[in-house]
Design brief:
Elements (H helix, E strand, L loop, with lengths): L7 E8 L15 E5 L12 E6 L5 E5 L14 E7 L9 E9 L2 E7 L2 E6 L2 E6 L9 E7 L15 E7 L2 E6 L8 H6 L5 E5 L6 E6 L7 E3 L5 E5 L8 E5 L34 E3 L16 E2 L9 E4 L6 E9 L2 E10 L6 E6 L5 E6 L12 E8 L8 E7 L2 E6 L13 E8 L10 E6 L5 E2 L5 E5 L7 E6 L18 E6 L20 H7 L1 E5 L2 E5 L5 E7 L5 E8 L3 E5 L7 E8 L2 E8 L2
Parallel strand pairs: 1-32
Antiparallel strand pairs: 1-28, 2-25, 3-4, 4-5, 5-6, 7-8, 8-9, 9-10, 11-12, 12-13, 13-14, 15-16, 16-17, 17-18, 19-20, 20-21, 21-22, 22-33, 23-24, 24-25, 26-27, 27-31, 28-29, 30-31, 32-33, 34-35, 35-38, 36-37, 36-39, 39-40
C-alpha cells in the first residue's frame, strides 16, 4: 500500500505556524478503549482483514495470513474465527476456528447469519451443512477472470472490502502489479475497479475504475457507496472516494504507447473524477495518511453523518466530514484517535453500539508500530472533554471552521492562522512530491453568532484546491471552558466553491442519513421455532412482526442493541415484515418464514 497522482492544487492552512503532522498516540478523551484479546482470547493474534457480527452478537473475524513465504504460490493461509462474549463493558471472549485455508481474505460480510468472504479472485460463501459450528464446504458466488497473478508484486492484487445491501454484494478489485507490462494488462482487464455482484447468478458489473489499492468499501450519507484508496503510481494522495457509476478515479493502465490497442478497464477514457476527501501521504510535511482502510458511517452521536477510517501504516483512526457542493461530496479529514495496538484495517459497529477495530501488519509499508495483529473496541462515554474541530465548510472567499464547543478568544485572532498552497502533479512515478509552495494571507476572522464557528477569509481562495489546516493543541489555543485542542489539523478538498454565506445556517443532520446504515444492521435468523431479530438502535425502540396486510402479529420493545424473539407457531411458510422504530427512524424488512 502506498503513494500516487493528478494535477491538483493543495492549499496548506496552519494555526500557530507551519509544522508537520504528528499521529495521535493516545485514545480520544471522550472514548474508552476496551481490549478484546483478554481471558481465553489472550493469546489470540489476528491480522484482521474482515469484521462483522452474527445475529446472536458473536463477532466474525477474518484473519489475513500475510505474504506467503513462497511468492510463486497463492496465499491460502487466511482463517475465519468466531468470537463469543465480546459485547458489553467487560467482555470475556472465547475463540473458535470456523474456516481455514482461505485465499487472501480481504473482505468479509455476514448476511442472515451466512458468512461470505472475498479472497483471491472470488467471493465465497462458507458453508456449515451439519451445523456443528465449523465450515465444511464453500460455494463460489463470483469469480473474476484472470486474477490474481503470482509473484511478489502480483500479491498486491487483492479483492477488497466485501459489503452488501438489498441482496447485492459490492467489492473492489485492486490494480494490477506495480511494475506494469502489456502482458499484465491483457491478463487483468478487470483490475482497479469497483464492482457489484449478483449472488444468485455470480454475474459482476463494473461500477467505476481508476482505483489503485481500494482497501475497503462502506455505505455513507444517503446510502451512497464510498471507498478508500492508497497513494502510489498515478494517485498523488490517499483518498476517500464517492463511488459512482461510470466514473474514473485516476489510476491509469495505459501510461505509454506500448499499451496501444490493448483492452483497458472500463471508463478509463473518462476525465478523472476527484475524490470527496484527499489525505496527503504521511511521508510529506503535511501528510495525514499512508494506507487507509474501510470507511465506516456514523449514524448517531456528535459525529452523526460523518465517516471513520483506520490506517495500517499511519496508525490510529481518522474522521471524515462531508458536505455536498453542486450535488457532489467534498469535505475534510481529521485525526480522531490513536492509542490502539496495531495499524487499523477494519472497523465495524457492534450490537452493543461500540466501535470494533481490528488491524494487521506485514512487510514494507503494511505496518505501524512493532505489532502485526490487534483487536480492540472503543466505547463513547457521552462526554465532551476534548476540544476539536467538528467540521470545515467551503464558503465564498474562505473556509468556515465549526468547533464542537464554544470557542475561546484565540480562535478569533488572525495571527494564529497561516495558509500555504502547493501543487501535486500526477505521473506514473511512484512518488509525486508537491511543488510550487506558496503562502496566502488570512484576513480578519469573523466569529459566528453561535460562538462555535469562525470564518477565515483566504486570499486567492478558489475551487480546485485542497486546504490543510493545522491547529497545534497548545494551552494557548483553548475553548471557552479552557479545554485544549485535541483535533490539531485537517485537510479539506475544495473541489467546488460553496455557495452559502459565511456564518449562514448549518445544515442539520437529517435522521434519514442513518436509514440505510441502520437497515443493513437490522438482521434476523431462525432458531428452532423462533424468529430472532437483532435491533440496530442505541436508544428506546419497538420491533413488530407484521403480515403483508400490515396487521400486527407480535410486538417487542427494548433499549439499545438487543435481540428480540418471535414465535413462528402458526406463521411458518409465510412472508412477513419486520418493522423496527427507534433513533428517529422507521425500518422495514421483508422476511420469508421457513
Amino acid at each position: 500500500m502506498h503513494k500516487s497522482a493528478v494535477s491538483k492544487f493543495i492549499l496548506v492552512f496552519c494555526v500557530g505556524g507551519f509544522a508537520g503532522t504528528t499521529p495521535l498516540t493516545t485514545v480520544h478523551p471522550d472514548w474508552t478503549r476496551i481490549n478484546l484479546r483478554v481471558g481465553a482470547a489472550a493469546g489470540f493474534q489476528p491480522r484482521v482483514s474482515g469484521l462483522d457480527f452474527l445475529s446472536n452478537g458473536d463477532l466474525v473475524v477474518g484473519h489475513w495470513g500475510g505474504i506467503h513465504d513462497n511468492v510463486a504460490l497463492a496465499q491460502v493461509n487466511s482463517i475465519v474465527y468466531i468470537l463469543s462474549g465480546v459485547t458489553g463493558n467487560a467482555p470475556s471472549p472465547t475463540v473458535r476456528t470456523f474456516a481455514t485455508g482461505i485465499e487472501d481474505l480481504m473482505g468479509l460480510a455476514v448476511v442472515s447469519d451466512q458468512i461470505y468472504v472475498s479472497g483471491g479472485n472470488k467471493v465465497v460463501q462458507l458453508l456449515d451443512a451439519n451445523g456443528d459450528g465449523i465450515s465444511d464446504g464453500t460455494r463460489i458466488i463470483c469469480s473474476v477472470p484472470y486474477t490474481p497473478g503470482i509473484g511478489i508484486h502480483q500479491r498486491h492484487e487483492f479483492t477488497f472490502g466485501l459489503t452488501q445491501r438489498s441482496g447485492t454484494f459490492y467489492m473492489n478489485v485492486s490494480s494490477t502489479k506495480l511494475d506494469l507490462t502489456p502482458a499484465d494488462l491483457i491478463r487483468s482487464p478487470n483490475r482497479g475497479t469497483s464492482m457489484s455482484v449478483n449472488p444468485t447468478t455470480g454475474a459482476f458489473s463494473v461500477i467505476a475504475s481508476g482505483l489503485r489499492e481500494p482497501t475497503g468499501l462502506g455505505f455513507g450519507p444517503n446510502g451512497d457507496l464510498f471507498s478508500g484508496d492508497v497513494a502510489g503510481n498515478w494517485v498523488p494522495t490517499n483518498k476517500l472516494i464517492h463511488v459512482q457509476q461510470g466514473h474514473f478515479y485516476g489510476f491509469h493502465h495505459t501510461p505509454d504507447a506500448a499499451y496501444a490497442g490493448l483492452t483497458v478497464p472500463p471508463f478509463e477514457s473518462q476525465p478523472e473524477s476527484p475524490p470527496a476527501v484527499y489525505m496527503p501521504d504521511e511521508e510529506l510535511t503535511y501528510g495525514m495518511a499512508a494506507a487507509v482502510s474501510n470507511p465506516l458511517y456514523v449514524t448517531t452521536g456528535p459525529y452523526a453523518g460523518q465517516m471513520l477510517m483506520g490506517d495500517v501504516h499511519y496508525g490510529g483512526i481518522q474522521r471524515y466530514f462531508l458536505e455536498k457542493v453542486n450535488n457532489e461530496y467534498q469535505g475534510a479529514v481529521f485525526q480522531f484517535t490513536g492509542g490502539l495496538e496495531v495499524g487499523m484495517f477494519r472497523l465495524a459497529w457492534g450490537p452493543d453500539g461500540m466501535l470494533y477495530a481490528g488491524g494487521l501488519a506485514d512487510n514494507g509499508d503494511w505496518n505501524w508500530g512493532p505489532q502485526a495483529f490487534g483487536l480492540q473496541k472503543l466505547r463513547y462515554n457521552g462526554t465532551t472533554n476534548a476540544y476539536e474541530m467538528l467540521a470545515v465548510r467551503s464558503r465564498p472567499g474562505g473556509l468556515e471552521i465549526e468547533f464542537n464547543k464554544p470557542i475561546g478568544a484565540t480562535a478569533s485572532v488572525a495571527a494564529n492562522y497561516s495558509v500555504q498552497s502547493m501543487i501535486v502533479t500526477s505521473t506514473i512515478n511512484y512518488a509525486n512530491d508537491p511543488t510550487g509552495v506558496r503562502t496566502d494571507a488570512v484576513g480578519a476572522i469573523q466569529v459566528c453568532s453561535d460562538n462555535r464557528r469562525v470564518f477565515l477569509p483566504v486570499a486567492n481562495f478558489t475551487a480546485g484546491r485542497i486546504y490543510y489546516l493545522r491547529v497545534p493543541g497548545f494551552a494557548t489555543f483553548q475553548a471557552a471552558d479552557n479545554s485544549v485542542l485535541w483535533t490539531r489539523e485537517t485537510v479539506y478538498a475544495n473541489n467546488a466553491m460553496g455557495s452559502g454565506a459565511a456564518c449562514s445556517a448549518v445544515p442539520v443532520v437529517d435522521p434519514k442519513l442513518a436509514h440505510a446504515a441502520l437497515l443493513n444492521r437490522l438482521q434476523w435468523s431462525v432458531e428452532g421455532n423462533n424468529l430472532i431479530v437483532r435491533s440496530p438502535f442505541r436508544g428506546s425502540h419497538e420491533i413488530k412482526l407484521l403480515d403483508l396486510r400490515g396487521s400486527v402479529l407480535a410486538t417487542s420493545s427494548g433499549f439499545g442493541p438487543s435481540l428480540h424473539s418471535f414465535s413462528l407457531s402458526g406463521v411458518r411458510g409465510r412472508f412477513a415484515v419486520v418493522e423496527a422504530v427507534g433513533d428517529g427512524t422507521r425500518l422495514r424488512r421483508a422476511v420469508n418464514l421457513p
